[in-house]
Structures are given as structure tokens and as C-alpha cells.
């Protein structure tokens, strides 16, 4: 049976971004991402959780830089062509408007049908769904849960 991701908005297609990580690809609506920036000037501190890589500067702000792989229970690799995706925060916290996520390459924009078929893949923590695309499986991340992970650790 072909299961599809629900489409509560009634929109038939949307522009999305494929965000390459070390061990998976994330799929997000392009409006969730404020900007893609180079990986540079990360300020680290002792005793950070392994999924929090430090802080990165963006538009006169210091943003927490997260590793999705490590937050999902895996390693936090730094590849040959790292980039950073700056996300709009979704948790409604007045002092947290943006978060940064380490990428392992250059994102790619694509138009996707709003009713993507689900992929038969086990989900890692912080993943809402896996969907089948023409060139493989992409994961839909739970950005609110990622932000909550920061809050639970007392970091925001």
C-alpha cells in the first residue's frame, strides 16, 4: 500500500530544500531556512553536549550550532565542505529566533509534490517521517523537538 505524507494545506506542490548531512538527507520547506552560510568562526566551550558544536555568528547574532546527526544519537562529523543552515526557530521563545545546523555540503532546491510517498525506513530520534524521492530517501526533521532539546539542556 502506498502511504503519503498528509497534506493539510491543500497545496499540491512546494519548494523544498534537500540538506545533506553525513549519514542522511533532510527535506524541509525552503521557508524554514533563513540562509545558508559558510562554516566559519565557531566558538566552542568546554562541557557542551556532543550535539552542540558551539556558537556561530550570523547578522550580529550568536546562534547555537547543532549537529543533527549527534542530536539523533550518532557522531558529529565535520566533512570536507561543511556549510551551515540558519533556521527560523519555531518554539515561540522570545529570545530565540534562529538556530544553526551543520550541513555536509551544498543544499539543493527542488519542487516536491505535497503528497510524497512515505519511505520504508526506520526513523531516528528527531525525525518525523522518511519520504521517497526520485533519487533516494529524505528525512523530515522535527525542528521543534531539536529546539526543545536545547531548552531542556538549559542552553536557550
From TrEMBL:
Record domain CheW-like: where: 13-152
Entry's Gene Ontology BP terms: chemotaxis; signal transduction
Pfam families xref list: CheW
Superkingdom of source: Bacteria
PROSITE patterns associated with the record: CHEW
Record's protein name: Putative chemosensory signal transduction system protein ChpC
Organism name: Azotobacter chroococcum NCIMB 8003
